[in-house]
Design a protein that fits this description.
By secondary structure, the protein is α/β, with parallel strands linked by helices. It is about 40% helix and about 15% strand. Bound molecules: zinc ion. One of its GO terms (biological process) is tRNA queuosine(34) biosynthetic process.
Length: about 230
């Protein structure tokens, strides 16, 4: 474990919850930050707060309502349907969202004496979000360091993992059941396995099935024969 402090960008979903467990295992001290931007489901915020409380993590909620003002879309507005054209960006896209979130996370991190910023962005299942790409994260890391004269490190433990591998990581961290049961990924605001119909649920389920089909050694059973 590194004797350092980290801030996890945390939404209460599968990816960021896996990152939170990763950070808890990796760093001496961890805090979480959640952005309130008028999500379709305020339940997301409750879910994040519940998980942070249960894990004993200090939880910051920052108001980013201006995002809704700048880019009203399907993620924040109930009157816009979620859809994805083939090869196009899903209607959940908000221009510059990760740029803004990570920048605010960095201001917070410096304020509480943390160098590490952990985010669940991922380039593998690239859905067209340019600010999820590794090259963007590296570029922003340099910019943040220069802007605040501080040596931030942006950690992206999921960057090169596919969804099945993200489940595997949660399992390795002893958090498979926790992530499966307690997180909210579904666009319709249903925890755990969700509604099963929306794009987020379909992506999550495909990864889960792929992981389970791979003959994965799930926590609780993984110690058999190895201890
Ligand atoms: Zn769903």
């Amino acid at each position: 474990m590194r004797n350092e402090k980290a801030v996890v960008v945390f939404s209460g979903g599968q990816d960021s919850t896996t990152c939170l467990f990763w950070a808890i295992k990796t760093f001496r001290e961890v805090e979480a930050v959640t952005f309130n931007y008028g999500q379709r489901h305020v339940l997301e915020l409750d879910c994040a707060a519940d998980i942070a409380a249960e894990l004993g993590i200090r939880h910051h909620v920052l108001d980013m309502g201006l995002l809704n003002q700048l880019a009203p879309n399907a993620l924040t507005r109930n009157d816009i349907e979620i859809k994805q054209e083939d090869g196009g960006l899903p209607s959940t896209f908000v221009d510059g969202r990760n740029l803004l979130f990570l920048t605010f996370a960095a201001v917070l991190a410096k304020g509480i004496g943390a160098r590490h910023i952990v985010t669940g962005v991922c380039e593998t299942d690239f859905s067209g979000y340019p600010d999820c790409r590794d090259v963007f994260i590296k570029s922003l890391n340099v910019t943040l360091n220069l802007s605040m004269d501080y040596r931030f490190v942006i950690d992206t433990p999921l960057m090169w993992l596919n969804k099945a591998q993200t489940w595997a990581l949660a399992d390795e961290l002893g958090a498979f059941q926790f992530v499966r049961e307690r997180t909210l990924t579904c666009y319709n605001g249903i925890k755990a396995d969700g509604c099963g119909e929306c794009p987020a649920c379909q992506l999550r389920r495909r990864g889960l099935e792929e992981y389970l089909d791979s003959g994965a050694s799930l926590e609780g059973t993984q110690l058999e024969g190895t201890s």
